């Protein structure tokens, strides 16, 4: 590896400055919603008001009569295949003869002004025949996937704790709404400029629906204002392209905030029953779990979410006997799919709540019960897969416990009290609690998926100086991937001047920006392409090589080691390529009369294998912890009888700077020998462990069981026995 002063300053392991940082802070960054092209028109979508209904007729005439309206399209105007989907082609481009959830697209409109387009959509007359909606997942008869995990035969123990737990529907709540610009091309194809997470899979779904070959559907990544899984599925992409091809004019669609809540998938709500059996000294003997995940109206990525919930359903603990059943079902609730943590979040809340109950039953501390059962390198998951890289969970827990606790109280400063700034209290009923949470998350895609990334690297002289261009299709969704690609190129080639080209489909796929996989897989591809370029230098210094040979360009694919599907009956198999651990401690103050909670501090220890960019890594851990805090205390899409009650940031609450506490971080580096640079994906694990840690802290402060997240004030202030009846023996 070539090292120069420039690579040391800006290469792997350094906090290189993000190229988009200043533009985002000053408001000059161009997001997809800022796209503009002369002659463009605006699209809008008509959505179903019913969670379940037959469509008896659609009259587009009133919309077409409005001045400025250019066209209205229904399912009859879809030029190709009428269905798309990530895993199964089950979602209609536009509703055909029925709607299966509130907000399902029924028709699209193009007009010369966005307000005109919205008025025209509202003018379309649709005759619905509402029908009974299936909204309770426990009553659904339609399974997306059932994944059992079976291991061992001993299901009796000296200490047994049981519990039923529930996780509400969380939204990704990105700040940049769905948006894009479709431009018809002279060759009869279309160019789409889009905020997405996976350019090539978008293209692969779009082309059949548009009746076009893949090479005539070209996608370019536009500025993305957050993603967290919600941009994995199509939203307005196919509608904008249909309108552009029909009109032969550029068409832009930008969702408003309310429409965004209906326009993307959410985190699966879950109902989970757990039973843990242990010896009197706290050693796990068995775990039984029934995990029910509400997938909503369409499949999306629910099969993979179910697989994660099943394989990680007992957590990072050694358990010789396991009986887990993870089931995803269809309902008439909003579709659910990818969100940070992806099935592992729901299970983590339940098994960590159980570990606290087991600690209490065995007379052990929350840390000790976890240390006694912690996995380490060489342990087996409940699927039989061996953890073959460092997994220092016991050490992480000891380090976390050793961190100093915050001071005991805010004194007279009301800003430090729950609800204090509203002068609801002066601390009379405020109690402090401390709780711990542990999470394990798979990194990259699992269960035999062909998970790879492609990178093209070009070295040349520009103005007499060496310059490197890196080109991948990997989506920068705010995580700092553009910065990291440049860091790798500087490190591997010793060239300070590096440009990362805009991601598009003119280069091979890089997969999705999800599963904490891009540093691993696209980082591996960039490194491999750089190594191929360096080999062609023939040992010469960079400048001399480029003067002699001219521009040098190489393209490489990188694949992680293979994974395998879980056995459909036993759940056994090496389904994951890498696993990551994070542990949290939460300190909370709770007003037990008003049910208000203030998180005083979060502390975390995470093993990342190798630090690639310290500042970006810290941001990922803070961000993941914030989303976990939101799930614990405030974030939930309220759905009643299939209807969304709070599709706005007025009523759907997310943590602000006033809600996020100070954080203490300790980052461990135990390299994974199978991964590029030894790195370990880091974006998702903090979301897992922060939620149960906060829940445990609130339980410690109140003495209540509190078996559901988010925890509402009425649960904390009024409940005496918790949400569910529970028993322990």
TrEMBL record:
<dbReference type="Pfam" id="PF20256">
    <property type="entry name" value="MoCoBD_2"/>
</dbReference>
<dbReference type="InterPro" id="IPR037165">
    <property type="entry name" value="AldOxase/xan_DH_Mopterin-bd_sf"/>
</dbReference>
<dbReference type="InterPro" id="IPR008274">
    <property type="entry name" value="AldOxase/xan_DH_MoCoBD1"/>
</dbReference>
<dbReference type="InterPro" id="IPR000674">
    <property type="entry name" value="Ald_Oxase/Xan_DH_a/b"/>
</dbReference>
<dbReference type="InterPro" id="IPR046867">
    <property type="entry name" value="AldOxase/xan_DH_MoCoBD2"/>
</dbReference>
<dbReference type="Pfam" id="PF01315">
    <property type="entry name" value="Ald_Xan_dh_C"/>
</dbReference>
<dbReference type="InterPro" id="IPR036856">
    <property type="entry name" value="Ald_Oxase/Xan_DH_a/b_sf"/>
</dbReference>
<dbReference type="Pfam" id="PF02738">
    <property type="entry name" value="MoCoBD_1"/>
</dbReference>
<protein>
    <submittedName>
        <fullName>Xanthine dehydrogenase subunit D</fullName>
    </submittedName>
</protein>
<feature type="domain" description="Aldehyde oxidase/xanthine dehydrogenase a/b hammerhead">
    <location>
        <begin position="26"/>
        <end position="132"/>
    </location>
</feature>
<dbReference type="InterPro" id="IPR016208">
    <property type="entry name" value="Ald_Oxase/xanthine_DH-like"/>
</dbReference>
């Amino acid at each position: 590896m070539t090292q120069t002063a420039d690579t040391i300053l800006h290469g792997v392991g350094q906090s290189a400055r993000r190229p988009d940082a200043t533009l985002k802070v000053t408001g000059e960054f161009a997001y997809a919603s800022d796209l503009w092209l002369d002659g463009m028109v605006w699209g809008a979508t008509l959505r179903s008001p019913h969670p379940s209904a037959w469509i008896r007729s659609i009259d587009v005439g009133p919309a077409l009569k409005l001045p400025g309206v250019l066209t209205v399209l229904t399912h009859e105007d879809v030029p190709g295949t009428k269905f798309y989907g990530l895993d199964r082609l089950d979602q209609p481009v536009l509703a055909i003869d029925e709607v299966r959830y509130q907000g399902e697209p029924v028709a699209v409109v193009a007009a010369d002004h966005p307000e005109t387009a919205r008025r025209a959509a509202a003018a379309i007359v649709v005759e619905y025949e509402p029908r009974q909606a299936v909204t309770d997942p426990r009553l659904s008869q339609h399974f997306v996937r059932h994944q059992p995990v079976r291991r061992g035969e001993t299901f009796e123990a000296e200490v047994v704790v049981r519990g039923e737990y529930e996780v509400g529907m969380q939204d990704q709540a990105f700040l940049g709404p769905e948006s894009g610009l479709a431009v018809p091309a002279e060759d009869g194809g279309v160019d789409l400029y889009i905020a997405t997470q996976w350019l090539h899979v978008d293209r692969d779904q779009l082309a059949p629906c548009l009746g076009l070959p893949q090479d005539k559907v070209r996608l370019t990544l536009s500025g993305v204002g957050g993603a967290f899984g919600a941009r994995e599925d199509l939203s307005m992409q196919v509608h904008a392209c249909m309108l552009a091809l029909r009109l032969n004019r550029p068409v832009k669609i930008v969702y408003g905030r309310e429409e965004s809540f209906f326009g993307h998938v959410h985190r699966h709500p879950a109902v989970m029953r757990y039973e843990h059996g242990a010896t009197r000294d706290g050693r796990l003997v068995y775990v039984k779990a029934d995990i029910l995940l509400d997938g909503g109206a369409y499949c999306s990525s629910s099969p993979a979410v179910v697989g994660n919930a099943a394989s990680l359903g007992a957590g990072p603990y050694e358990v010789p006997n396991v009986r887990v059943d993870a089931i995803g079902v269809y309902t008439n609730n909003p579709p659910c799919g990818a969100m940070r943590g992806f099935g592992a979040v729901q299970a983590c809340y339940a098994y960590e709540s159980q570990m606290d109950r087991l600690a209490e039953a065995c007379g052990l501390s929350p840390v000790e019960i976890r240390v006694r059962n912690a996995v380490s390198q060489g342990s087996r998951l409940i699927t039989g897969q061996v953890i073959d890289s460092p997994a220092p969970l016991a050490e992480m827990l000891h380090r976390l416990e050793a961190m100093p606790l915050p001071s005991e109280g805010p004194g007279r400063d009301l800003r430090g009290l729950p609800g204090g700034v509203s002068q609801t209290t002066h601390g009379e009923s405020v109690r402090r609690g401390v709780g711990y949470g542990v999470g394990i998350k798979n990194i990259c895609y699992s269960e035999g998926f062909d998970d790879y990334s492609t990178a093209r690297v070009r070295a040349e002289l520009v103005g007499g100086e060496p310059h490197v261009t890196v080109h991948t299709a990997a989506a920068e969704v705010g995580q700092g991937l553009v910065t990291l690609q440049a860091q790798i190129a500087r490190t591997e080639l010793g060239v300070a001047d590096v440009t990362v080209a805009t991601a598009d489909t003119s280069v091979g796929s890089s997969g999705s920006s999800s599963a904490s996989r891009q540093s691993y897989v696209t980082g591996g591809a960039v490194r491999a392409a750089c190594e191929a370029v360096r080999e062609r230098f023939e040992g010469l210094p960079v400048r001399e090589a480029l003067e002699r040979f001219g521009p040098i360009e190489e393209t490489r694919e990188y694949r992680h080691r293979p994974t395998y599907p879980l056995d459909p009956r036993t759940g056994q198999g090496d389904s994951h390529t890498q696993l990551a651990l994070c542990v949290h401690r939460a300190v909370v103050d709770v007003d037990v009369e008003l049910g208000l909670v203030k998180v005083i501090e979060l502390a975390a220890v995470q093993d990342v294998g190798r630090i690639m960019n310290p500042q970006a890594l810290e941001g990922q851990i803070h961000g993941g912890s914030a989303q976990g805090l939101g799930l614990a205390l405030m974030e939930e899409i309220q759905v009643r009888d299939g209807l969304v009650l709070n599709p706005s940031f007025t009523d759907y609450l997310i943590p602000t700077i006033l809600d996020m506490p100070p954080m203490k971080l300790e980052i461990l580096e135990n390299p994974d020998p199978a991964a590029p640079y030894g790195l370990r994906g880091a974006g998702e694990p903090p979301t897992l462990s922060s939620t149960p840690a906060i829940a445990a802290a609130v339980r410690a402060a109140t003495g209540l069981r509190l078996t559901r997240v988010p925890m509402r004030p009425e649960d904390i202030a009024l409940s005496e026995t918790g949400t569910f009846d529970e028993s322990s023996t």
